[in-house]
Design brief:
Length: 237
Amino acid sequence: MKNKGLLLYLLLISILLSGCGKKDLSKQVVVTINDEKVYMDEVIWELFLYEYDLYEDSKDYEKENGKSYWQIDIGDGVTVEDALKEEVINDIIFTHILSGQAKKTGSFVIEDNGGYDEVIDKDMALINDKLEDYGMTREGCRKLIETQGLFNYYLDEILKKYEVDEDKIREENPYDEETYETKKNYNDYIDSLIKDAKMQKLTDDYNNTLLGMYDVQINDKVWDAYKVGELTKMLDK
Protein backbone atom coordinates (compact mmCIF):
# COMPACT_ATOMS: atom_id res chain seq x y z
CA MET A 1 0.00 0.00 0.00
CA LYS A 2 2.87 2.34 0.80
CA ASN A 3 4.38 1.75 -2.65
CA LYS A 4 1.02 2.38 -4.29
CA GLY A 5 0.68 5.66 -2.42
CA LEU A 6 4.17 6.69 -3.44
CA LEU A 7 3.43 5.93 -7.11
CA LEU A 8 0.25 8.00 -6.99
CA TYR A 9 2.18 10.86 -5.39
CA LEU A 10 4.90 10.76 -8.04
CA LEU A 11 2.28 10.60 -10.79
CA LEU A 12 0.55 13.68 -9.36
CA ILE A 13 3.85 15.58 -9.18
CA SER A 14 4.71 14.70 -12.78
CA ILE A 15 1.30 15.94 -13.95
CA LEU A 16 1.70 19.22 -12.08
CA LEU A 17 5.20 19.76 -13.41
CA SER A 18 4.15 19.01 -16.97
CA GLY A 19 1.62 21.85 -16.72
CA CYS A 20 4.30 24.30 -15.65
CA GLY A 21 6.32 24.16 -18.85
CA LYS A 22 6.11 26.54 -21.76
CA LYS A 23 3.31 26.08 -24.25
CA ASP A 24 4.32 24.76 -27.66
CA LEU A 25 2.30 26.78 -30.13
CA SER A 26 4.33 25.55 -33.10
CA LYS A 27 2.03 22.52 -33.46
CA GLN A 28 -1.27 24.44 -33.45
CA VAL A 29 -2.42 25.09 -37.01
CA VAL A 30 -4.40 28.33 -37.29
CA VAL A 31 -4.99 28.44 -41.03
CA THR A 32 -4.19 26.27 -44.04
CA ILE A 33 -3.65 27.93 -47.43
CA ASN A 34 -3.62 25.20 -50.06
CA ASP A 35 -0.84 22.95 -48.72
CA GLU A 36 0.79 25.58 -46.50
CA LYS A 37 0.07 25.49 -42.78
CA VAL A 38 0.42 28.63 -40.66
CA TYR A 39 1.00 27.93 -36.98
CA MET A 40 0.00 29.74 -33.82
CA ASP A 41 3.60 30.44 -32.78
CA GLU A 42 3.77 32.90 -35.69
CA VAL A 43 0.20 34.21 -35.52
CA ILE A 44 0.47 34.90 -31.78
CA TRP A 45 3.07 37.57 -32.54
CA GLU A 46 0.79 39.30 -35.02
CA LEU A 47 -1.99 39.25 -32.43
CA PHE A 48 0.30 40.58 -29.72
CA LEU A 49 1.64 43.45 -31.83
CA TYR A 50 -1.92 44.48 -32.80
CA GLU A 51 -2.93 44.33 -29.12
CA TYR A 52 0.18 46.21 -28.03
CA ASP A 53 -0.68 49.18 -30.26
CA LEU A 54 -3.93 49.54 -28.29
CA TYR A 55 -2.51 48.53 -24.91
CA GLU A 56 -2.51 51.96 -23.23
CA ASP A 57 -5.91 52.90 -24.71
CA SER A 58 -7.43 49.66 -23.42
CA LYS A 59 -6.05 50.19 -19.91
CA ASP A 60 -7.28 53.79 -19.77
CA TYR A 61 -10.75 52.78 -20.99
CA GLU A 62 -11.09 49.95 -18.50
CA LYS A 63 -9.88 52.18 -15.66
CA GLU A 64 -12.40 54.90 -16.49
CA ASN A 65 -15.36 52.69 -17.39
CA GLY A 66 -14.85 49.53 -15.39
CA LYS A 67 -15.44 47.24 -18.36
CA SER A 68 -13.50 45.61 -21.15
CA TYR A 69 -12.26 47.80 -23.97
CA TRP A 70 -12.19 44.78 -26.26
CA GLN A 71 -15.91 44.18 -25.83
CA ILE A 72 -16.98 47.65 -27.00
CA ASP A 73 -19.73 47.31 -29.60
CA ILE A 74 -18.55 49.24 -32.68
CA GLY A 75 -21.77 48.57 -34.60
CA ASP A 76 -24.05 45.75 -35.68
CA GLY A 77 -23.02 43.64 -32.70
CA VAL A 78 -19.36 43.64 -33.77
CA THR A 79 -16.90 44.19 -30.93
CA VAL A 80 -13.39 45.62 -30.97
CA GLU A 81 -12.19 42.05 -30.37
CA ASP A 82 -14.14 40.74 -33.38
CA ALA A 83 -12.76 43.47 -35.64
CA LEU A 84 -9.16 43.00 -34.48
CA LYS A 85 -9.24 39.22 -34.94
CA GLU A 86 -10.74 39.57 -38.40
CA GLU A 87 -8.09 42.09 -39.39
CA VAL A 88 -5.29 39.88 -38.05
CA ILE A 89 -6.41 36.67 -39.76
CA ASN A 90 -7.07 38.47 -43.06
CA ASP A 91 -3.64 40.09 -42.84
CA ILE A 92 -1.98 36.72 -42.16
CA ILE A 93 -3.73 35.13 -45.15
CA PHE A 94 -2.97 38.07 -47.48
CA THR A 95 0.68 38.18 -46.42
CA HIS A 96 1.21 34.45 -46.84
CA ILE A 97 -0.48 34.30 -50.24
CA LEU A 98 1.66 37.11 -51.66
CA SER A 99 4.88 35.92 -50.03
CA GLY A 100 4.08 32.47 -51.42
CA GLN A 101 3.80 33.96 -54.89
CA ALA A 102 7.15 35.66 -54.38
CA LYS A 103 8.74 32.30 -53.56
CA LYS A 104 7.28 30.78 -56.72
CA THR A 105 8.90 33.42 -58.91
CA GLY A 106 12.29 32.34 -57.60
CA SER A 107 13.62 35.87 -58.06
CA PHE A 108 13.21 37.09 -54.49
CA VAL A 109 16.12 36.07 -52.33
CA ILE A 110 16.42 38.33 -49.33
CA GLU A 111 19.70 38.51 -47.47
CA ASP A 112 19.11 39.11 -43.78
CA ASN A 113 22.44 40.80 -42.95
CA GLY A 114 21.32 40.99 -39.31
CA GLY A 115 18.33 43.19 -40.09
CA TYR A 116 15.79 40.61 -38.99
CA ASP A 117 17.64 39.95 -35.74
CA GLU A 118 17.49 43.66 -34.93
CA VAL A 119 13.71 43.74 -35.43
CA ILE A 120 13.26 40.49 -33.49
CA ASP A 121 15.35 41.84 -30.60
CA LYS A 122 13.06 44.88 -30.38
CA ASP A 123 9.93 42.71 -30.42
CA MET A 124 11.35 40.28 -27.85
CA ALA A 125 12.08 43.26 -25.57
CA LEU A 126 8.33 43.97 -25.43
CA ILE A 127 7.41 40.68 -23.77
CA ASN A 128 8.08 39.18 -20.33
CA ASP A 129 8.52 35.71 -18.82
CA LYS A 130 4.76 35.21 -18.58
CA LEU A 131 4.37 35.67 -22.33
CA GLU A 132 7.34 33.43 -23.05
CA ASP A 133 5.73 30.73 -20.90
CA TYR A 134 2.51 31.29 -22.84
CA GLY A 135 4.40 30.23 -25.95
CA MET A 136 5.79 33.39 -27.53
CA THR A 137 9.22 32.45 -28.86
CA ARG A 138 12.01 34.01 -30.84
CA GLU A 139 11.50 31.34 -33.51
CA GLY A 140 7.83 32.28 -33.89
CA CYS A 141 8.73 35.95 -34.15
CA ARG A 142 11.30 35.15 -36.85
CA LYS A 143 8.67 33.29 -38.88
CA LEU A 144 6.45 36.38 -38.88
CA ILE A 145 9.27 38.83 -39.65
CA GLU A 146 10.65 36.73 -42.51
CA THR A 147 7.20 36.31 -44.08
CA GLN A 148 6.53 40.03 -43.80
CA GLY A 149 9.96 40.84 -45.21
CA LEU A 150 9.38 38.75 -48.31
CA PHE A 151 5.86 40.17 -48.62
CA ASN A 152 7.12 43.77 -48.50
CA TYR A 153 9.78 43.19 -51.16
CA TYR A 154 7.27 41.52 -53.45
CA LEU A 155 4.61 44.14 -52.74
CA ASP A 156 6.85 46.94 -54.01
CA GLU A 157 7.31 45.06 -57.29
CA ILE A 158 3.60 44.34 -57.69
CA LEU A 159 2.56 47.94 -57.05
CA LYS A 160 4.77 49.11 -59.92
CA LYS A 161 2.38 47.33 -62.30
CA TYR A 162 -0.62 49.41 -61.23
CA GLU A 163 -1.30 52.79 -62.80
CA VAL A 164 -3.17 55.61 -61.10
CA ASP A 165 -3.88 59.18 -62.14
CA GLU A 166 -1.03 60.91 -60.31
CA ASP A 167 -1.83 64.31 -61.84
CA LYS A 168 -5.36 64.11 -60.49
CA ILE A 169 -4.07 63.25 -57.04
CA ARG A 170 -1.83 66.32 -57.10
CA GLU A 171 -4.67 68.53 -58.36
CA GLU A 172 -6.90 67.34 -55.54
CA ASN A 173 -4.13 67.94 -53.00
CA PRO A 174 -2.37 71.19 -54.00
CA TYR A 175 0.79 72.34 -52.29
CA ASP A 176 0.27 74.65 -49.33
CA GLU A 177 3.39 75.90 -47.59
CA GLU A 178 1.58 76.49 -44.30
CA THR A 179 0.40 72.89 -44.22
CA TYR A 180 3.40 71.04 -45.61
CA GLU A 181 6.23 73.51 -44.76
CA THR A 182 8.58 72.01 -47.37
CA LYS A 183 8.27 70.54 -50.86
CA LYS A 184 9.79 67.32 -49.57
CA ASN A 185 7.03 66.90 -47.00
CA TYR A 186 4.46 67.56 -49.70
CA ASN A 187 6.01 65.10 -52.16
CA ASP A 188 6.25 62.44 -49.45
CA TYR A 189 2.55 62.93 -48.73
CA ILE A 190 1.64 62.69 -52.42
CA ASP A 191 3.76 59.54 -52.75
CA SER A 192 1.84 57.99 -49.85
CA LEU A 193 -1.49 58.84 -51.53
CA ILE A 194 -0.28 57.30 -54.80
CA LYS A 195 0.79 54.14 -52.97
CA ASP A 196 -2.56 53.99 -51.17
CA ALA A 197 -4.40 54.26 -54.50
CA LYS A 198 -2.32 51.45 -56.00
CA MET A 199 -2.77 49.38 -52.86
CA GLN A 200 -6.53 49.76 -53.18
CA LYS A 201 -6.37 48.39 -56.73
CA LEU A 202 -4.27 45.45 -55.56
CA THR A 203 -6.69 44.79 -52.68
CA ASP A 204 -9.64 44.81 -55.10
CA ASP A 205 -7.87 42.33 -57.39
CA TYR A 206 -6.97 40.17 -54.39
CA ASN A 207 -10.53 40.07 -53.04
CA ASN A 208 -12.21 39.67 -56.43
CA THR A 209 -9.84 37.19 -58.08
CA LEU A 210 -6.68 36.04 -56.33
CA LEU A 211 -8.18 34.90 -53.01
CA GLY A 212 -10.67 32.69 -54.83
CA MET A 213 -7.79 30.76 -56.41
CA TYR A 214 -6.70 29.44 -53.00
CA ASP A 215 -8.27 26.91 -50.66
CA VAL A 216 -8.19 28.72 -47.31
CA GLN A 217 -9.29 26.84 -44.20
CA ILE A 218 -9.30 28.51 -40.78
CA ASN A 219 -9.02 26.19 -37.78
CA ASP A 220 -11.95 27.59 -35.79
CA LYS A 221 -11.15 25.46 -32.73
CA VAL A 222 -7.75 27.10 -32.32
CA TRP A 223 -8.74 30.55 -33.55
CA ASP A 224 -11.94 30.92 -31.52
CA ALA A 225 -10.17 29.83 -28.33
CA TYR A 226 -7.99 32.94 -28.36
CA LYS A 227 -9.40 35.93 -26.49
CA VAL A 228 -8.10 39.37 -27.40
CA GLY A 229 -6.55 41.18 -24.45
CA GLU A 230 -5.14 38.16 -22.65
CA LEU A 231 -1.65 38.73 -24.03
CA THR A 232 -1.19 42.37 -23.04
CA LYS A 233 -2.89 41.65 -19.71
CA MET A 234 0.12 39.45 -18.88
CA LEU A 235 2.34 42.53 -19.15
CA ASP A 236 0.72 43.81 -15.96
CA LYS A 237 1.51 40.65 -13.95
